[in-house]
Amino acid sequence: MISLSDVQAARERIAEITYMTPIFTSTKLSQICGNQIYLKSEHLQKTGSFKIRGAANKVIQALQDGAIYVTAASSGNHGQAVAYIADQYRIPATIVVPDNVSFCKENAIKGYNGHIEKCGTTSRERLPRAMEIAKQENGVYIPPYDDPYIMAGQGTIGLEVLEQVQDADAVIVPIGGGGLISGILTAIKESNPSVRVIGVEPQLANDTFLSFQNKQITSISGTNTIADGLRTNQPGDLTFPVLMKYLDDLVLVSEDEIRQAFSFVMERMKQLIEPSSATTVAAAMFNKLPFQGKKVVTVITGGNVDLDKVSDLIVDTHMC
């Protein structure tokens, strides 16, 4: 497993590439939730999501090891991040995306000079294809989550949270493959183990929830959740042991709750975030957290949303 020193090393490695993203608050949101809520705003990160942290850490290491070409498999944000870093270092990148990839994410990958190949709709389909291309072209495959350098890079968010909200009681993190939360868990639990870390998944993409209950990796057949960044089939082999060791709790949110949270953040806080990001706000808004009156940081993972799909995500919310 990765350690706190790996996360600290990642922070130094990516310092000139990534931002320390701001913390937002909302009095109304805190009133609704019964907790003091802070939003760690990775939607304002370079390439529009937290993924640049892990991608930068992994690609820079690959370059130091002699890489001249990289590939990735991604529903969008990881692919954007890999394409961006590869473009910065002037090496080619091929990104294998799902057939139903978000239009804005596809355009962004192309904007960073990444070559796109479409393959299926699940990570189970596109990951092997990206690995195959890397092998054929003598390149390096950059995993989306199940890799020590990716996990350590994402964990730098945890270090920032501890500095920005020094008396935080809990941090709420979305779970896809587990790269983000395993890195944050390592950073927080090995720095201040009293801070609780709670994971959130959509009810329609509950592979980690089932795995956590079963105490072993459990896969699902697929999902069509609106939280497209969380559409994984199972947690990673490297990420899951970290969750089993450190995770305090894992909760589920419905599609309607995700829409309600998305709409609230857009209407009241004037921030456009992804449905995947809205899962953490939804967990706080709809009483999924096992406490009240605490200082809670919700990790907002990204803001790459097709503008023509925003109307489909907005609902009337009585909470506004």
UniProtKB/TrEMBL annotation:
<keyword id="KW-0460">Magnesium</keyword>
<dbReference type="GO" id="GO:0016846">
    <property type="term" value="F:carbon-sulfur lyase activity"/>
</dbReference>
<dbReference type="GO" id="GO:0070179">
    <property type="term" value="P:D-serine biosynthetic process"/>
</dbReference>
<comment type="function">
    <text>Catalyzes the anaerobic formation of alpha-ketobutyrate and ammonia from threonine in a two-step reaction. The first step involved a dehydration of threonine and a production of enamine intermediates (aminocrotonate), which tautomerizes to its imine form (iminobutyrate). Both intermediates are unstable and short-lived. The second step is the nonenzymatic hydrolysis of the enamine/imine intermediates to form 2-ketobutyrate and free ammonia. In the low water environment of the cell, the second step is accelerated by RidA.</text>
</comment>
<protein>
    <recommendedName>
        <fullName>threonine ammonia-lyase</fullName>
        <ecNumber>4.3.1.19</ecNumber>
    </recommendedName>
</protein>
<dbReference type="GO" id="GO:0004794">
    <property type="term" value="F:threonine deaminase activity"/>
</dbReference>
<dbReference type="GO" id="GO:0030170">
    <property type="term" value="F:pyridoxal phosphate binding"/>
</dbReference>
<dbReference type="GO" id="GO:0005524">
    <property type="term" value="F:ATP binding"/>
</dbReference>
<dbReference type="GO" id="GO:0018114">
    <property type="term" value="F:threonine racemase activity"/>
</dbReference>
<keyword id="KW-0663">Pyridoxal phosphate</keyword>
<dbReference type="InterPro" id="IPR000634">
    <property type="entry name" value="Ser/Thr_deHydtase_PyrdxlP-BS"/>
</dbReference>
<feature type="domain" description="Tryptophan synthase beta chain-like PALP">
    <location>
        <begin position="19"/>
        <end position="302"/>
    </location>
</feature>
<keyword id="KW-0456">Lyase</keyword>
<dbReference type="InterPro" id="IPR036052">
    <property type="entry name" value="TrpB-like_PALP_sf"/>
</dbReference>
<dbReference type="Pfam" id="PF00291">
    <property type="entry name" value="PALP"/>
</dbReference>
<dbReference type="GO" id="GO:0003941">
    <property type="term" value="F:L-serine ammonia-lyase activity"/>
</dbReference>
<feature type="modified residue" description="N6-(pyridoxal phosphate)lysine">
    <location>
        <position position="51"/>
    </location>
</feature>
<dbReference type="InterPro" id="IPR001926">
    <property type="entry name" value="TrpB-like_PALP"/>
</dbReference>
<dbReference type="GO" id="GO:0000287">
    <property type="term" value="F:magnesium ion binding"/>
</dbReference>
<comment type="similarity">
    <text>Belongs to the serine/threonine dehydratase family.</text>
</comment>
<dbReference type="GO" id="GO:0030378">
    <property type="term" value="F:serine racemase activity"/>
</dbReference>
